[in-house]
């Protein structure tokens, strides 16, 4: 008999992935990508705000439901997009306003299929209600082949992607059927201990770290302090993953910043060189599971037209990043 099923994370936590925990806030479930108490130890309101943005948070179930209903609550900016996929095909994209917004859509197809709901990749969005209607059953979707944690800046969060299922990490995860945990933190990729400890404690068959652009832009470290900050972050991650491949990606090209010194006298070229030098140092000390990637091989100097502001890619730039990184990351797993 057809009926309705709630996908409330308190009732069906197995349906949700991509977050550390849910916290009840004024009748809504707020996803935190980094544990709330741990995020607070950053002593940064901006970092805490980023931890509350549900980039990569999604529900994934196996069901014969005919209709989906979703209510979200946005608290800090309008325009967040939710994506609905059926058997990995985008069937509905919805833009929510500030406050409580309701969406309902029919789900195409018949019989049991995989239904995914991706929450917005930017802005804070809490979950008020989510339900599947006209269904006889809802089950856990088949498990992904591999778990992947990726950490980075707004270039990993991908605000300019067309939707949350089309960030470059989401595109790669969908292509390879990997379970994604995205720690793209716009403006907040500063090698925080809270981020390192989160990755350390998260199950992962593959880890990628995109390091450098926020450090350059906000003068987080200088030439003396940056090398040990990079090695220390990686070593903390390695403590929890002694054999997991870790891919370290330096900044993609930003032509106006390559030779422009920041407030501590470092150019983007300098920052990129330090990131690679720190990785080489750890490899020489015996960590053979590290794989450095020059960000200019992901988006090159001659592809500045794909950056809408000289730093951040447009949607087509993120698609190209996924196209280039997908085989590279897969090859690391195969070694």
Secondary structure layout plus pairing:
Blueprint: E1 3-6, E2 16-17, E3 21-25, E4 28-32, H1 36-40, H2 45-51, E5 58-63, E6 67-74, E7 81-86, E8 89-95, E9 99-106, E10 113-118, E11 125-135, E12 138-140, E13 146-152, H3 154-157, H4 168-176, E14 178-184, H5 193-201, E15 206-210, H6 213-217, H7 226-240, E16 246-249, H8 268-284, E17 290-293, H9 315-334
Parallel strand pairs: 13-14, 13-15, 15-16, 16-17
Antiparallel strand pairs: 1-11, 2-5, 3-4, 5-10, 5-12, 6-9, 6-11, 7-8, 7-10
Helix pairs in contact: 4-9, 5-7, 7-8
What is the CATH superfamily of the largest domain? Answer: SGNH hydrolase
Instruction: Output the helix-strand order.
Output: EEEEHHEEEEEEEEEHHEHEHHEHEH
- The termini sit apart by 49 Å
Mean pLDDT: 96
SS-derived structural category: alpha+beta
Helix-residue proportion: 25-40%
Strand content: 25-35%
Q: Report the major sheet.
A: 6 strands, antiparallel
List keywords for this structure.
globular, Rossmann fold, 6-stranded antiparallel β-sheet, 5-stranded parallel β-sheet, Jelly Rolls, 2 domains, alpha+beta, about 325 residues
Structural description of this entry:
- The chain is built from nine helices and 17 strands.
- Helix content is 27%, strand content 29%.
- It has helices at residues 36-40, 45-51, 154-157, 168-176, 193-201, 213-217, 226-240, 268-284, 315-334, and strands spanning 3-6, 16-17, 21-25, 28-32, 58-63, 67-74, 81-86, 89-95, 99-106, 113-118, 125-135, 138-140, 146-152, 178-184, 206-210, 246-249, 290-293.
- The mean pLDDT is 96.
- It has two domains: 3-140, Galactose-binding domain-like (Jelly Rolls), CATH 2.60.120; 146-334, SGNH hydrolase (Rossmann fold).
- Helix 4 (168-176) packs across helix 9, helix 5 runs parallel beside helix 7 (226-240) and helix 7 (226-240) crosses helix 8 (268-284).
- The longest helix has 20 residues, at 315-334.
- The N and C termini lie far apart (49 Å).
- Strands 2, 5, 7, 8, 10 and 12 form a six-stranded antiparallel beta sheet that branches. Strands 14-13-15-16-17 form a five-stranded parallel beta sheet, with helices on both faces.
- It has 335 residues and is α+β, with helices and mostly antiparallel strands.
- The relative contact order is 0.12.
- The chain is globular.
- Helix 8 (268-284) links the parallel strand 16 (246-249) and strand 17 (290-293).
């Amino acid at each position: 008999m057809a009926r309705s099923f709630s996908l409330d994370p308190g009732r069906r936590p197995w349906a949700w992935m991509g977050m550390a925990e849910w916290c009840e806030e004024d009748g809504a479930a707020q996803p935190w990508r980094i544990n709330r108490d741990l995020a607070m130890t950053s002593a940064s309101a901006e970092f805490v705000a980023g931890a509350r943005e549900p980039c990569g948070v999604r529900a994934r179930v196996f069901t014969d439901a005919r209709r989906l209903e979703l209510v979200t609550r946005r608290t800090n900016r309008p325009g967040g997009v939710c994506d609905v996929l059926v058997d990995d095909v985008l069937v509905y994209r919805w833009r929510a306003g500030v406050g409580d917004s309701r969406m309902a859509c029919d789900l195409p197809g018949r019989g049991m299929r995989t239904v995914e709901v991706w929450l917005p990749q930017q802005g804070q969005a809490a979950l008020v209600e989510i339900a599947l209607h006209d269904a006889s059953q809802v089950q856990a979707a088949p498990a992904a082949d591999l778990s992947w944690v990726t950490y980075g800046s707004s270039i990993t969060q991908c605000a300019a992607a067309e939707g949350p299922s089309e960030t470059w990490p989401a595109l790669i995860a969908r292509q390879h059927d990997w379970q994604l945990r995205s720690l793209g933190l716009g403006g907040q990729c500063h090698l925080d201990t809270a981020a390192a400890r989160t990755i350390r404690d998260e199950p992962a068959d593959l880890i990628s770290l995109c390091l450098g652009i926020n450090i350059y832009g906000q003068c987080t470290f200088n030439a003396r302090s940056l090398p040990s900050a990079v090695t220390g972050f990686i070593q903390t991650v390695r403590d929890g993953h002694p054999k997991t491949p870790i891919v370290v990606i330096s900044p993609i090209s930003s032509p106006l910043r390559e030779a422009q010194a920041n407030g501590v006298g470092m150019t983007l070229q300098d920052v990129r060189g330090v990131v690679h030098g720190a990785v080489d140092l750890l490899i020489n000390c015996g960590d053979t599971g590290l794989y450095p990637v020059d960000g200019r091989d992901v988006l090159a100097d001659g592809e500045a037209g794909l950056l809408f502001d000289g730093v951040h890619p447009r949607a087509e730039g993120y698609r190209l990043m996924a196209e280039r990184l997908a085989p590279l990351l897969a090859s690391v797993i195969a070694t």
